[in-house]
Amino acid sequence: MLAPDPLASALRARQQRALAKALAWGLQGDVQPLGTMAYAVPSRTEPGRSYRVARTRRAGAEHLICDCPAGLAGVPCVHTAAVYIHRLEQRTGGTVTAVRPA
Question: Which residue numbers in the chain have pLDDT < 50?
Answer without folding.
Answer: none
